[in-house]
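Title: Comparing notes on inverse folding

I've been comparing how different people in this forum approach sequence design from structure. To keep things fair, I'm posting one structure and asking everyone to reply with a full sequence. Here's the target:
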């Protein structure tokens, strides 16, 4: 039996994933968490084989969670299930320690297959991600500016471009407004931009929102 923990801040999304996975005879959902704090408490007391993880979490992001698990040498295998398109976050997630990446728009059979493959210790890579990897190996590409951003800076960029105020972002990420302002300033500097309007245009042109 494959033991799975779900971590997503939207209860309805968790319910949908849970219902999909529990229909499989060889998968058991043993716990659910809505943020990093709940996840840490749950993982201390509950053994699991696969962590199904969203990237966009309040407080520490899913990418932060993977860095922590990787640094701790955790044996738990991580499958990222995210609303973000593969071409923007899949490679970043895999580099952070994910064993697979599935878009939330994928069909249920793909999600079940991904959990099974990841539980076996293999990487789950969609044809789209495989194509991206092949292209990156076969031809050198100019660096995309936002690849210079840290995970938290990229998260700040996407939230600003989604129309959220700094105070809203601070609350969502469980950070101080001053800290978010620092991230915003770093993003502007690294991308060579001047204001939030230019950030939004950049994000739209590069498919980040």
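Reply #1:
Here's my take.
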């Amino acid at each position: 039996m494959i033991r799975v923990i779900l971590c997503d801040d939207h209860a309805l999304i968790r319910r949908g994933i849970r219902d999909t996975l529990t229909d499989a005879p060889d998968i058991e959902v043993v716990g659910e968490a809505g943020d990093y704090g709940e996840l840490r408490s749950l993982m201390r007391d509950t053994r699991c084989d696969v962590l199904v993880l969203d990237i966009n979490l309040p407080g520490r992001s899913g990418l932060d969670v993977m860095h922590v698990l990787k640094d701790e040498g955790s044996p738990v295998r991580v499958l990222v299930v995210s609303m973000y398109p593969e071409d923007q976050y899949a490679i970043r997630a895999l580099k952070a320690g994910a064993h697979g990446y599935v878009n939330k728009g994928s069909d249920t059979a793909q999600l079940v297959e991904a959990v099974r493959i990841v539980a076996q210790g293999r990487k789950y890579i969609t044809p789209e991600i495989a194509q991206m990897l092949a292209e990156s190996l076969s031809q050198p590409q100019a660096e995309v500016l936002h690849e210079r951003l840290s995970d938290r800076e990229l998260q700040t960029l996407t939230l600003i471009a989604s129309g959220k105020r700094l105070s809203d972002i601070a609350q969502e990420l469980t950070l101080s407004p001053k800290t978010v302002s620092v991230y915003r300033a770093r993003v502007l500097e690294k991308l060579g931009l001047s204001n939030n309007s230019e950030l939004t245009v950049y994000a739209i042109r590069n498919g980040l929102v």
